[in-house]
Amino acid sequence: MKNMNKIKLLMLGAVAAVGLTACDSVSEEDRFVEATIEPQRAVLLEEFTGQLCTNCPDGHAAVNKLVATLGDSIVPVGIHASGLSISVASGGLGTEAGETYYAQVGSPALPTGVIDRVTAPLQVADWDSQIDALIVQPTPFTVAAKAAVSGTDYNIEVAFSSGDDYDGKLMVWVLENDITALQLDHGVYVTDYVHNHVFRTYATADVDGEAVSLKAHSPQTKTYTVAIDEKWNASNLYVVAFLYNNAGVAQVTQSPSSH
Predict the structure, then answer these.
(1) Which residues have C-beta within 8 Å of that of residue 101, sequence separation ≥ 6?
(2) What is the DSSP annotation of 15-33?
(3) Which residues pair with 122 in a beta bridge?
(4) What is the pLDDT of residue 25?
């Protein structure tokens, strides 16, 4: 994971604690104080979305805002699934694996997001607060990923370690940016909509990742090869990798991408 910058937020000042009302006169500079949040980890956002979901562009916009604010501290993955997605077989972005992940979280209404695999499916308006709460929690885990195109293969290397003993799974996903495809946007069909952070496939043998057992301070490295589908733009591919177990995501990272 790349170095994460401090994030400055405007927060309601201490004067709020005394129960200000709409009739109170408080100067602008006294209403807010600047607070600095220093992320201690990256946070995974699984954004469940669909090309036929008319409100899903609201989720896409929220993701763009989060990325602009948090940088590498937020790792979004757009998973196209449900009856509002269009399958790859029909020329869309929906995948069988995406449907599996969607079913695992209870097949909620779209758009929705799951944070670090510890929250219930959340409405877009609830993403920020959950991310803020998780991003400041220290973690003893490190994960780093890199990938390179070799002919029709996408070769991936993931290195990971922990300060504690750990049993869980390593998930490795291939994503793509800058996909121009159909999107229903608040009642309007947009044929040249640009989709980013799109889940394409998983690299492990199993859809739920590869079991790993870590001893403290004993790094491990795993390598994978994924055949590049003819529908993908190889120059826009990148990798998301994370360690997780029943307690949620221990750490997540993404390899360099076009965004």
Answers:
(1) 46, 48, 79, 81, 207
(2) GGGG---TT----HHHHEE
(3) 113
(4) 45
Structure tokens at 107: 């097949």
Exposed/middle/buried for 259, CB within 10 Å: 0-12, 13-18, 19+? exposed
- In sequence order, which residues have a C-beta less than 8 Å from that of residue 199 and are 6 or more positions away? 77, 78, 79, 80, 95, 97, 98, 173, 174, 175
Give residue 56's pLDDT. 98
The structure's pTM equals: 0.87
Which 8-state DSSP code applies to residue 237?
E
Report d(CA 200, CA 92) in Å as an integer. 11
In whole angstroms, what is the distance from residue 162 CA to residue 215 CA? 7
CB–CB of 55/110 below 8 Å? yes
What is the C-alpha separation between 237 and 255, in angstroms, rounded? Answer: 9
The 3-state DSSP class for residue 56 equals: helix
Q: Kindly list the averaged pLDDT for each block of 10 residues, start to end, along the chain of length 259.
A: 43 37 44 64 98 98 96 97 97 98 98 98 97 96 97 98 98 98 98 98 98 98 98 97 98 80
Element (H, E) at 105: none
